[in-house]
Design goal:
heterodimer; A: 707 residues; alpha+beta; Aldehyde Oxidoreductase, domain 4; 3 domains; seven-stranded mixed β-sheet; five-stranded mixed β-sheet; 27 strands; globular; B: 152 residues; Ubiquitin-like (UB roll); DNA polymerase, domain 1; 6 helices; 5 strands; elongated; binds FE2/S2 (inorganic) cluster
Chain lengths: 707, 152
């Protein structure tokens, strides 16, 4: 695949750099903040993404937020590959928010690689061409005769290193068209590379947002209402102010903030506050919300898609299978609690910390403070997890507000309790499925999803859309004061579990093998591919089903093994999982999960394996234990003593297999989570004869199948 | 307010004017600038704050500074700054970290385990490491890395 790049769609390198090529100009926006390390003077910035030193070291900026998805290794690998670099020469730096030079600096929806793949390749390829042009000019030969490889340009036995060429290359005119490599010539993409921050992480030198320190900075602890929807009646901070080390107490909206010389004193001061609240409305309660959601399911939902005639098929069915699946609220529980640094001054502000949406958060802060966006700088830090929680910049705005009120640089740090009780949860949601079975076939499929605070609780164009003629999807929403938001694999994180559990039951009603049943549906989708709308490619989907069935020895029913199947398409990727259960002394135990995955071209196989394992373990853990309930308006679980997370002894082994692909890279960090719960539920059924309809599974069972 | 002296990564340090009840974690992080030890829960339930106290793994979030007078404390920064401990090497070999936030605590727990039990079984590992949560789900790699390190 050779792609010609037109200048218009090209990185704005030359224009934005104004013809200068020193690092100081290329990174002007970062240097301005004074907070990030600037490289030595003699480095040459080839474009906004990379600079090269005379000794041949190559610094590549990782532009997107790092939340543990390992983008900080993957992005530079893509640039370095097209650059023709030796990976050993590469040093990776985190870029600040820079909307002039970079695009979509967001970590969300598993879309970073998918969105930026070509942009990063172009950045590397342009720089490579400039290095080649510099060498060709030096030798007085046609550039097309020169080749770039392993940080050198070579021609006819002659060779110049990138270090030797950097200065000259930086002054070369930007090439109009550059060609990208053929994918088969990738030398870094597709190779296993270790996490570039591993040394720092394992020696305690990696800084996270919560580690931020600045001269004169105060630590801030925030008290929000006990229950969602409450407002402050009165505040008495006398006891707090009497604590040595407490510097100030400020208040805004319904929040009271204690500022102190260290985190613990700020937290202690917060506990000493006496605040009374009231609410005009009845306080939220999970049991009430559950009843409301069932009422919604019993009514008519907003129709999202309606193919064929489901009602006719139901009327003519031999059998109707109808089941309802339920899931509670879930907190994200990033291991690094929410935090942010802010230094707000009259005419400028600096923000620093862990945020998945730096651009949107900076804009919100600028608007709030009445500043222009270019008066606000934002530095990204490596994040102790994101999982969607850090898409919401509430804590960034809070930090800015606090700094403004206190007139000082501050670091806002949530306690675990603040973090877990503070909302923006995976919403509570219920799904009711109804299938018509006639002559051993599913002839109609209907889904109604009802949940809290989301426009659409379904994915009507995902499987089985297009795989069945009579198909109807409805959604109903319940507005609640309990704040909700995206959570790793939004919507599908439970929808997949419910759907795949249900299809298992329908397959049984049709007297079909669970995998064969799904394969037949996909064959139907393939046969009608051109006439039906759907977001997935049934051919690719079928391939992962077959791979999982093969690698899990699915059709071998002879052993003391109970297998549950589940498959799901999301984030443009295809996943099939098999949960393997054994009985130990008569008790079923989940042994391992086999996972087949198609996410297009693999940038970094080693890291991809890690992501797959993490997604499966996370999916199994939350299906089994995740449970946050609301009473009197407040979260009843606020720390890890009452909120159970999966731990090492419970984590199943994960055996992963990837489809060898030349397709454009697609989502990696999220897609393996959604099918995991369904695979587990279906294996539990095989082992015990019991169907599970409600998360957390542990509350539905007599034994903990994770051992 | 108290003044406390203890050994930190081989050096004697003394902290003045701190609340005697302040947990070691916050003294390390905010007063001694040692931020490698992480806060995750504050109630000894997640292991992010694990350090060694006289050679044993402890949760620094739940140890008041007043109780460590004269103790030997090792944090991740002082554990093996040259990155040559078999656990660090094994962690890199198995590419364990995802977000990395829990990993200092994981390493400190694992190091205390190996110091006591050079060849831990799977079950020994499960028991010793069950106090350390990893939200990213790197548990299988942690187990594999401990096994690799224990064979060296
Ligand atoms: S912070 Fe100490 S165990 Fe969680
Ligand atoms: S690596 Fe992210 S919490 Fe363990």
């Amino acid at each position: 695949m050779i792609t010609n790049i037109k200048r218009r769609s090209f990185l704005k390198v030359a224009a934005t750099l104004g013809g200068g090529f020193t690092l100081g100009i290329a990174w002007a926006s970062d240097v301005k903040t004074g907070y990030i390390k600037t490289a030595a003077e003699d480095w040459t910035g080839i474009n906004a993404y990379l600079s090269i030193s005379p000794t041949g070291k190559i610094t590549i900026m990782s532009t997107n937020p790092e939340i543990g998805q390992n983008i900080k290794t993957a992005f530079p690998m893509i640039v370095a590959d097209e650059l023709g670099a030796d990976w050993k020469d590469v040093i990776v730096e985190q870029a600040a928010l820079d909307t002039v030079n970079f695009k979509r600096q967001v970590a969300g929806g598993s879309q970073s690689i998918r969105f930026s793949f070509d942009l990063l390749r172009q950045a590397g390829a342009t720089a490579r061409q400039m290095l080649i042009n510099a060498a060709a000019e030096t030798w007085g030969v046609d550039p097309s005769l020169c080749k770039a490889d392993m940080s050198k340009v070579v021609y006819n036995g002659k060779s110049l290193s990138y270090g030797e060429l950097a200065n000259k290359a930086g002054k070369m005119p930007k090439p109009e068209n550059v060609s990208l490599k053929d994918t088969k010539d990738f030398h870094i993409i597709g190779s296993s590379q270790k996490n570039v921050d591993a040394d720092k992480i394992l020696s305690g030198n990696q800084k996270y947002g919560i580690d931020t320190k600045r001269e004169g900075m105060l630590y801030a602890s925030i008290k929000k209402p006990d229950g969602f929807g409450q407002v402050i009646v009165s505040v008495n901070d006398a006891k707090t102010r009497a604590i040595p080390g407490v510097v100030d107490v400020v208040q805004f909206d319904e929040k009271v903030v204690v500022l102190a010389k260290d985190t613990w004193t700020a937290m202690k001061g917060k506990k000493a506050l006496s605040v009374t609240y009231k609410s005009d409305k009845t306080l939220e309660d999970s049991e009430v919300i559950d009843k409301k959601l069932v009422e919604l399911l019993n009514g008519a939902g907003e129709v999202k898609r309606n193919d064929g005639d489901v009602d006719k098929a139901f009327a003519e069915a031999d059998q109707i299978v109808e089941k309802t699946y339920e899931a509670p609220f879930l907190p994200h529980n990033c291991m690094e609690p929410m935090n942010f640094f802010a230094d707000v001054q009259a005419d400028k502000a600096h923000l620093e910390g862990p945020i998945q949406t730096p651009e949107g958060s900076r804009k919100a802060v600028a608007d709030m403070l009445g500043l222009k966006e270019d008066q606000v700088s934002l530095m990204l830090t490596r994040m102790g997890g994101g999982f969607g929680r850090r898409l919401n910049g509430d804590f960034v705005r809070e930090a800015a507000q606090i700094s403004k009120l206190a007139g000082k640089p501050i670091l806002l740090v949530y306690s675990r309790e603040d973090d877990m009780a503070g909302g923006i949860y995976r919403n509570a949601v219920k799904y009711r499925f109804k299938a018509a079975v006639k002559g051993g076939k599913m002839t109609a499929y209907q889904l109604h999803g009802a949940g809290v605070n989301s426009r659409n609780h379904c994915r009507e164009n995902f499987f089985p859309a297009g795989a069945i003629d009579n198909y109807k999807v409805m959604s109903s929403n319940y507005e609640s004061a309990v704040t909700c938001g995206p959570w790793r694999a939004p919507v599908t994180n439970f929808l997949a579990c419910a759907e795949q559990s249900f299809l298992d039951e329908v397959a049984e009603a049709c007297k079909k093998d669970a995998v064969d049943f799904r394969l037949e549906m996909l064959d139907y989708a393939i046969a009608n591919n051109s006439t039906t709308k759907k977001d997935y490619d049934p051919v690719r989907f079928k391939a992962v089903l077959k791979l999982a069935a093969d690698k899990s020895d699915w059709y071998n029913k002879s052993s003391n093994e109970f297998k549950g199947f589940s498959a799901y398409f999301s984030h443009n990727s295809y996943v099939a999982e098999v949960a393997h259960m054994k009985k130990v002394d008569g008790t079923p135990v989940l042994e391992k999960v086999t996972c087949a995955f198609d996410c297009g071209i693999l940038i970094n196989p080693l890291s991809a394996l890690n992501q797959v394992e993490g997604g499966v373990v996370d999916g199994i853990g939350h299906a089994m234990y995740g449970n946050l309930t609301i009473k009197d308006g407040a979260a009843q679980q606020t720390n890890f003593n009452t909120y159970r997370m999966i731990r090492i002894a419970e984590a199943p082994k994960v055996v992963s297999h990837f489809i060898d692909s030349t397709e454009h890279p697609s989502g990696l960090g999220e897609p393996t989570l959604p099918p995991a719960g369904g695979a587990l539920a279906n294996a539990i059924y095989k082992a015990t004869g019991k169907r599970i309809y409600k998360q957390p599974f542990v509350n539905e069972m007599e034994v903990d199948v994770l051992g | 307010m108290a003044t406390i002296s203890f050994q930190l990564n081989g050096k004697t340090v003394s902290v003045k004017d701190v609340d005697a009840q302040m947990p070691l974690l916050w003294v390390l992080r905010d007063h001694l600038n040692m931020t490698g030890t992480k806060y995750g829960c504050g109630i000894a339930m997640c292991g992010a704050c694990t350090v060694h106290m006289n050679g044993s793994a402890v949760r620094s979030c739940s140890i008041p500074i007043s109780s460590i007078e004269g103790s030997k404390i090792t944090t991740i920064e002082g554990f093996s700054p040259n990155m040559d401990h078999p656990l660090q090497k094994a962690w890199i070999e198995h590419d364990v970290p995802q977000c990395g936030y829990c990993q200092a605590g994981q390493i400190m727990s694992a190091a205390a385990l190996l110091a006591e039990n050079a060849k831990p079984s799977d079950e020994d590992i499960d028991i010793a490491m069950s106090g350390n949560i990893c939200r990213c789900g790197t548990y299988n790699r942690i187990k594999a890395a401990i096994k690799t390190a224990s064979n060296q």
